[in-house]
Design a protein that fits this description.
Number of helices: 10
CATH architecture of the largest domain: 3-Layer(aba) Sandwich
Number of domains: 2
Strand content: 15-25%
Radius of gyration: 19 Å
CATH class of the largest domain: Alpha Beta
Order of helices and strands: EHEHEHEHEHEEHEEEHEEHEHH
Strand order of the largest sheet: 3-2-1-4-5-6-11
Shape: globular
CATH superfamily of the largest domain: NAD(P)-binding Rossmann-like Domain
Number of strands: 13
CATH topology of the largest domain: Rossmann fold
């Protein structure tokens, strides 16, 4: 039986901790009783605003630096005694179409930097964040953890390579590392700006700023959307029980097409105009419907109803993105 890990009273490092999922994780770790949380983020998509609540606790140290540089991590480990690392550092999937080599390299380099530190005894436990994109389009549904890894972008290929690195270091050196694999997260703080925006926030931004929402291709590509707070809840609970070397999907039981999603957002925000059709994106995953059977066998966790979560999320964006009168 796996020995239960503890978060309370521990010193934690979160790479990418000023980002969307990372900042929600930071808030939860502090609520769980972590003694101190250090965050390193190069601000590629992160924002110090995401850490405002965490800063009020007096238990946060923030480093605007890059975990791709081993020397930057060495600096943090020399200043802090770290027990646990949550590796959320990455660059957005869409970035791989702009700089494919760097999108791949970031995922691999950060993971290897952390694994080398762990191998040398710098910290005890590593929770590595993977992505559903490592599976590519579904070969069978629902997609469980044994589904073939067939990444179709360099972002996903880098994530798959990082997963393999974690697994190999665990097997070779007996490290306490494991992999969580969230499917498509949504919720407050997700990036809404430019080419690297998530589909929900960018669609909201366009509608709120008198633009036209977009659908790429026929809109039938599907995703398994999960609210970020449900992902973080699952990660914290999995941290205690998931055996070293294993991976687990974090997902819901829903599958939503992008075409339907954009139409739902338009309806909620009262948009009645046209929807702009664009060509399908190259290498786009067509189908993502996950199995969360393993997750349910390990922990009890609740899921936010998608319609409820979507309305809450859009209300959050509407308060921040709607132009001043």
């Amino acid at each position: 039986m796996t020995k239960l890990r503890e978060l309370s009273g521990k010193n934690v490092l979160v790479t990418g901790g000023a980002g969307f999922i990372g900042s929600h994780l930071v808030d939860r770790l502090l609520a769980e009783g972590a003694a101190h949380v250090a965050v390193i983020d190069n601000m590629f998509l992160g924002s110090e605003e995401n850490l405002l609540v965490a800063q009020t606790t007096g238990k946060l140290s923030f480093y605007k630096d890059d975990a791709e540089f081993a020397s930057s991590l060495d600096y943090i480990f020399n200043r802090h005694t770290i027990d646990i690392v949550f590796n959320c550092a990455t660059k957005a999937l869409n970035y791989s179409f702009l700089n494919p080599a760097n999108a791949f390299g970031t995922n691999v380099t950060v993971a290897l930097n952390l694994l080398e530190l762990q191998r040398r005894g710098a910290f005890k436990s590593l929770c590595h964040f993977s992505t559903s994109e490592v599976y590519g389009s579904a070969v069978y549904e629902p997609m469980d953890e044994k589904h073939p890894r067939n990444p179709t972008t360099t972002y996903a290929a880098g994530k798959a390579a990082a997963d393999l690195a974690v697994e190999s270091y665990v097997h070779m050196f007996g490290l306490d590392g494991f992999i969580v694999r969230p499917f498509n997260n949504y919720g407050p703080r997700q990036n809404h700006k430019g080419l690297l925006a998530g589909v929900i926030p960018i669609t909201a931004w366009r509608i709120l700023n008198n633009g036209m929402p977009e659908i790429h291709g026929d809109g039938q590509q599907s995703r398994d959307f999960i609210h970020v707070r449900d992902t973080v809840d699952a990660v914290v609970k999995l941290f205690r029980v998931l055996p070293a070397g294993e991976s687990v999907n974090i997902s819901t039981d829903n599958q939503v097409t992008i075409g339907d999603l954009v139409k739902r957002i338009a309806a909620i925000l009262g948009y009645q105009g046209e929807i702009f059709r664009k060509p399908a994106r190259a290498a786009d995953v067509l189908c993502h419907y996950a199995s969360n059977q393993k997750l349910h066998s390990l922990i009890d966790y609740s899921l936010t109803d998608f319609d409820t979560g979507l309305c809450e999320t859009l209300d959050w964006y509407a308060q921040r993105l709607r132009p001043a009168p």
